[in-house]
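Re: export button greyed out
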Amino acid sequence: MTKLDSKIPEGPLAEKWTNFKAHQNLVNPANKRKIDIIVVGTGLAGGSAAASLSELGFNVKVFCIQDSPRRAHSIAAQGGINAAKNYPNDGDSVYRLFYDTVKGGDYRAREANVYRLAEVSNNIIDQCVAQGVPFAREYGGMLDNRSFGGALVSRTFYARGQTGQQLLLGAYGALSKEIKKGSVKMYTRREMMDVVLKDGKARGILVRNLVTGKLERYGAHAVLLASGGYGNVFFLSTNAMNSNASAAWKAYKRGAFFGHPSFVQIHPTCIPVHGNYQSKLTLMSESLRNDGRIWVPKKKEDAQKIQKGELSPVNIPEEDRDYYLERRYPAFGNLVPRDVASRAAKERCDEGYGVGNTGLAVYLDFKDAINRLGKSVIEARYGNLFQMYDKIVDENPYETPMMIYPAIHYTMGGIWVDYELQSTIPGLFVGGEANFSDHGANRLGASALMQGLSDGYFVLPYTMQNYLADQINVPHLDTDSPEFEKSEKYVQGNLDKLLAIKGSKTVDSFHRKVGLIMWDYVGMGRSKEGLEKAIEDLKSLRKDFWSNVNIPGDNTGMNVELEKAVRVSDFIELGELMARDALSRNESCGGHFREEYQTEEGEAMRDDENFMFVSAWEYKGVDEEPVLHKEPLNYENIEVKQRNYKTA
Amino acid sequence: MDLKLKIWRQADANAEGKFVTYPVHNISQDASFLEMLDVLNEELVTNGKEPVAFDHDCREGICGMCSLFINGRPHGPDDSVTTCQLHMRKFKDGETVVIEPWRAKPFPVIKDLKVDRSPFDEIIRSGGYVSVNTGGVPDANTIPINKENADLAMDAAACIGCGACVAACKNASAMLFVSAKVSQLALLPQGKVEAKRRVESMVAKMDDLGFGNCTNTYACEAECPKDISVANIARMNREFLCAKVT
Ligand SMILES: Cc1cc2nc3c(=O)[nH]c(=O)nc-3n(C[C@H](O)[C@H](O)[C@H](O)COP(=O)(O)OP(=O)(O)OC[C@H]3O[C@@H](n4cnc5c(N)ncnc54)[C@H](O)[C@@H]3O)c2cc1C
Ligand code: FES
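Workaround output, generated via the alternate export path:
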């Protein structure tokens, strides 16, 4: 326990961040030029951090897997970004955003971090508008807001259904500006394979050039990981295909603790699974729950007829529809937080009321909204989402209700970081979805974009400087040094081993198998038996993988199967850690639902007495059990309550 | 459904490429085009052969990573979608499908169906942004923007940078791409300050990188998966002329 120092500044909650900035160490402008920083990832967190650090005068090297920094997974975010502007005058404030986020996270996040996030949220909107991000506006020319789950105010800013795209293009613009200036050097189609440490500090990375297949060495005074989340451990998820756990996993193996690995978010509104060839799931933005009403048939017979294709939902009369969220949670209705909405959908489907040919779907119906507001208003709000649905499902959602089902979407867990976003490896900082972050056991909608940009624009440029202030006399790390030699040998050895297996099974077939194990046992409902089984199954899958995977080709030039194999081998190991974490947490909280721990009404039952802590896991070796460290959570500014979305 | 695929294979940038024919069987109508290619690759890998390399990431039509020239059209036969959103129900059982990479001089092939689109990044670097640093900016609502302009700016900003416009154009012109960014920023007060410098340097960069001229055939607009309008090209031309006379 002694190893975890959260470094929360002294003083009252609302003054902590101001105090930190007032007393932190700074690097003088002439010295900044002597300092190199590596940033892995160009999503909202990495892109904004790299640009801001470069503006301050540091030399920044940035890496991403895609062919352009503009294509990071953040681009796919649809719904919006929160901020406590209170423009609609509906009672919002920094405190309320902070409160909603801590409550939404089921009291498993650090108060001080969340408060800072709420505090800088307003600066983010100002910054993005100054960059020319075309947020939605009202006729008077002012910015428009919408509501998202888990909040009673409208605080979500949006750019049609493409908010992530527009925010990322803003950050990409800032990054492009700095690349042109010459203080950012951009390396695309590169994958980080290892963190290189010297004297216990992160001093560089080893990278695989995905075009040439060559390993490359880069040194720096500090490394920032902003490599995104690991939802793809479930194979089917809403994440982009290249999203992976590997950068974070390599850091974990080098000594960075992993926080809350089992906390993943299952998003309630995704297009249901439709075939075994399927490669990913498509999200239908949560913003749809502003106007759509969720229901299933009241009668099981109706559900069965729908499943067989004998009945159409439009022919089910109002009195035979069960708007189960409105029924169970009158105060929040269709806008309950994601974990609650997902579980409620699963509950109805498990009871046999599900729709679609698999019975694993519920309806999201816009009929009332279209009647009330007119089709054109709905089209203006969600047109691109409706089009996307139509293209995929081949059904017109203006006429027939959409079918949705929960899917893996986001990972609250990630590398453990202190208040300064530094991991347990000095000099290794982690931002965005890759850190265990501010969302506790469940993230509220539109808060990931906020956190990524908060970390990148407004937190890391300060906290990294605080660390770098005493590194100015540290010489550049020579890439011929033994530390790099050792790392390269290790990475090369691993690649050679993979290529030499030449078994009979494809990488994807293994990825599917990890995904199934995770979904069945470490997904929406978890139990002791299931988790123990998952650990055993993953262990044997790991053996199978290392004996039977087949990767055609070699290590010269581009080899997509090899790229995937490295990522899948990490997913298999990570899956085991997730299962262990879930098994160790004998309570239900947020997205972590242990079937043994629920109320009579089927709501999650927390155990604050025994589990009000952050789980941070320390790696001990592939076949060794990892060690659990606990960071106690103290709530001094919020009264800890059972979450209640039934009454306001 | 069963299909015959004629796919461009090329080992790397310097190798000579050629078409190779592959049959695929039992493809679901509901599968996406890329899922159909996944099925082919799974089969190739199972038989110890090298899978077909193609770019993709979000598979939601937003990252701009996927490309593919399918039966002579960028992003294939459906309108207003990217290849990753194209579904097999748009094809007929037994059909022969020809799959090529983008063909444009500024976008050389890296491997099979993957091309190098970094010239787009270079164009943006030459000025496709508002030069503000982090911090010290005014409150967001101090800049009222009329909704119509904000909406038009958003229409232009919807460009995903996939390069279909260049691939569709017989001159390999990047006018639609460049004009989308120029328009977005020209329509907003934040972009006005640097408007002249921006349009001049972006156009110059585009020419430098070997993109061709626009001869107003509008194939770019017809093939754009995001329906970016050629009205942006007209707006950019106006901006460019203004910049020259002032
Ligand atoms: C479909 C969808 C919709 C969403 N909608 C919303 C929303 O409306 N509001 C909201 O707040 N949140 C939303 N989210 C969540 C949010 O988009 C993400 O959490 C957030 O964008 C993550 O940003 P990031 O910068 O941390 O990482 P990412 O954007 O995932 O970027 C990761 C970067 O790291 C790079 N990288 C990864 N591994 C390596 C490696 N080994 N080597 C080199 N580079 C590497 C990648 O190339 C990429 O550049 C949504 C998510 C999804 C999937
Ligand atoms: S894969 Fe992202 S647009 Fe097609």
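Chain B has two domains: 3-111, 118-245. The button fix ships in the next patch.
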